[in-house]
Design a protein that fits this description.
Elements: H1 7-23, H2 33-57, H3 62-91, H4 99-107, H5 111-118, H6 122-126, H7 135-156, H8 165-181, H9 189-193, H10 200-213, E1 232-233, E2 236-237, H11 249-275, H12 280-302, H13 308-312, H14 315-322, H15 324-345, H16 352-378, H17 392-417, H18 424-442, E3 467-471, H19 473-477, H20 479-485, E4 490-493, H21 502-512, E5 518-522, H22 531-541, E6 546-550, H23 559-572, E7 577-580, H24 582-588, H25 606-620
Helix pairs in contact: 1-2, 1-14, 1-15, 2-7, 2-10, 2-12, 3-7, 3-15, 3-16, 3-17, 5-7, 8-10, 8-12, 10-12, 11-12, 15-16, 20-25, 21-22
Length: about 625
């Protein structure tokens, strides 16, 4: 009996892509494709286990199947949740917004539908929910409920050639539903988190399990050849069919071509993680493509004598795959915690949040494996009660775990009871918006008074009464600082605003005759900006005005290309376009940012000073 060599390595690569996507989205915008590799592997291994049960006992043996999955998933979750909620209560209350509902839906295995039902506000994007990554576990739990019925149906029609068409058809239907329901430039939460719309990898994994485990039936109508016993490791089966003495010609051809196909699939998947994005391509074929490539990667790696196995047993990759569940559980909430705490502990942001998250994840995964997951595989009760025949070391481990569990449960209760309804940044921005409105009304700036047509700019340092500012929540957070540095400035800033709002706002000012000589635009945080959009804005304000563009500081996939577009545009229009490098200023002053690492503190004027410095340098250059 041989093992399915290489699956841990495949899981390790997929996990690496997901972690980098979560923590460094700008560097790996397509890392979310790693989720589809995981889904395919999970579907394959789970279905293999069920097929083995049918083949050896004639039943699905759900009495064993369901508790085994629960023991694999829940002990680690029950450690994660109280510790993370306690950490939020102690260090960052923003992590606790809507925490009660998150905890309940995670434990019920339906967090993905909770996220879909509640929608995603702007502040959820700025301060992601601490258990949001567990939508994956919700989909997996729901798959565990339905997959026995799918495998049972396939087994009932095993004498025909149509058994594998059941999961293949379900995969195709899922992919079609995702493509039809996806709305370009809309919120993709429904189609990405939905069990019905994101089930392609799971279903294709079931089909692969059938093809690998059950002998092809052809047109004979005979019973499938008995499959050999399959050994298992932890939750998942890890054995493959022992070759029969007579190997058909098609099998020899497959064994020869499979490694190369797997390698090509691996290269394609890596390329997709590097250049891919969550865009129309992803939702209208890209995710289905990554699932199909995952099938080829798995099948080609586990094929007899596949040279791909040597690549996938690389120890660091295999270790990542072996502990992938724990790493996936812990890395995201610890990343959120690290990004909130690192700026308070270190003067410079990079690379401390990533280093903190990595060290904390290693520590917590080790704790979870040694004290919870490993003992739970033998007996769930042994997690909190030492077995009679255990050694002193194990007894000490149980006592330490009991202390950790008791303290974290107390902290968890406190965190849930005292969870805030809104993040601190949301509250501050709402207060700032109200204050800005009062200020502007007091100074009669927003009454759209007619102002003289602007003369040809003399390129001297402008005062506030010569500047119209249009921006998003980052500008709103700094409106107090802008008013202090540029008294009399006209500010129109709002939460969740993008560059698409600029033409209408500028047109309103033009119609009212209130657009000033210097037009400050800070709308790069929430969406990508194109040169065509900037051309339109520049054409609207006219050549007699100066356009001041503020770039963005956020860990979002669109920020690097947007910042590059703004820099290129300013360089191409040196006579009337100024670039404010807010990203560099924010990186150098991370301790003055809010807990989300995006907005400046309300009492800070670093944003305003960055604007002033950029204009001063531009004027001093003689333009």
């Amino acid at each position: 009996m041989n093992r399915f060599v290489g699956l841990d390595g495949i899981k390790g690569l997929a996990l690496l892509a997901i972690v980098l996507y979560h923590c460094m989205q700008q560097r790996l915008p397509g890392g979310s494709y790693g989720v589809d590799v995981f889904f395919t592997v999970s579907g394959f291994l789970t279905a293999t286990s069920l097929i083995r049960s049918l083949n050896t006992t004639g039943t699905l043996n759900l009495v064993r199947f369901i508790p085994k999955r629960a023991v694999r998933l829940y002990p680690a979750l029950l450690l994660l949740i109280p510790i993370i909620v306690s950490a939020g209560w102690l260090f960052d209350h923003d992590m606790l917004v809507s925490i009660r509902d998150q905890v309940i839906t995670v434990l019920l295995g339906c967090y993905n539908w909770y996220a879909i039902g509640t929608g995603q506000s702007y502040f959820d994007q700025m301060n992601p929910q601490v258990f949001r990554h567990l939508w994956f576990i919700g989909v997996l739990m729901q798959f565990y409920v339905i997959v026995p019925f799918i495998v049972w149906l396939m087994w009932r029609i095993r004498r025909t050639r149509y058994a594998s068409l059941v999961p293949v058809s379900l995969a195709a239907a899922s992919g079609l539903a995702m493509g039809l329901m996806y709305t370009p430039k809309g919120d993709p939460t429904r189609v990405y988190f939905g069990t019905d719309t994101h089930g392609m990898g799971l279903m294709l994994g079931v089909a692969l399990a059938w093809w690998v485990t059950v002998a092809p039936l052809g047109n004979t109508g005979q019973e499938p050849e008995p499959t050999p016993r399959i050994i298992s490791s932890g939750d998942f089966p890890v054995a493959r069919e022992t070759p029969t003495p007579h190997v058909p010609a098609w099998r020899r051809l497959w064994d020869a071509a499979a490694p190369s196909m797997a390698f090509i699939s691996l290269i394609a998947l890596v390329s997709m993680t590097v250049v891919g994005r969550q865009d129309a391509f992803a939702f209208r074929g890209g995710i289905m493509l990554s699932s199909l490539l995952s099938v080829l990667l798995i099948a080609g790696t586990i094929a007899d004598d596949s040279w791909m196995q040597s690549l996938m047993v690389f120890k660091p990759l295999a270790a990542l795959g072996r502990y992938s569940y724990g790493i996936y559980l812990w890395h995201w909430p610890l990343w959120i915690l690290s990004t909130a705490l690192a700026p308070k502990l270190f003067r410079s942001a990079a690379p401390w949040p990533l280093a903190m998250a990595a060290l904390l994840t290693v520590a917590m995964v080790t704790l979870s494996w040694q004290m919870v997951e490993k003992p739970a595989a033998l007996s769930p009760l042994s997690i909190v009660l030492p077995p009679r025949a255990c050694g002193r070391r194990r007894a000490v481990q149980v006592i330490v775990f009991d202390l950790i569990a008791a303290l974290s449960l107390v902290g968890c209760v406190q965190g849930i009871v005292h969870a805030p309804a809104k993040t601190a940044m949301q509250i501050q921005l709402e207060q700032q918006a109200a204050q800005l409105e009062r200020l502007q009304k007091t100074e009669h700036v927003l009454l759209r008074r007619n102002v003289p047509a602007p003369p040809k700019p003399t390129h001297t340092m402008p005062t506030g009464d010569r500047i119209t500012a249009i921006g998003d929540s980052v500008m709103l957070a700094s409106s107090q600082g802008l008013s202090a540095v540029f008294p009399g400035i006209q500010i129109d800033a709002s939460v969740s605003r993008s560059i698409m709002a600029a033409p209408e706002l500028i047109d309103d000012d033009l119609a009212a005759g209130s657009l000033r000589q210097w037009v400050l635009v800070g709308l790069a945080t929430n969406s990508q900006i194109s040169a065509d959009q900037l051309d339109r804005i520049l054409a609207m304000i006219g050549r007699d005005r100066v356009l001041v563009l503020v770039n963005a500081h956020a860990d979002r996939a669109w920020v690097p290309p947007t910042n590059q577009t703004l820099a290129d545009y300013a360089a191409a229009h040196p006579s009337n376009v100024v670039l404010v490098d807010w990203d560099a200023t924010a990186n150098a002053n991370a301790q003055m940012l809010g807990s989300d690492g995006i907005h400046p503190s309300m009492d800070s004027d670093i944003y305003a000073k960055a604007v002033k410095q950029a204009i001063e340098q531009w004027v001093a250059s003689g333009r």
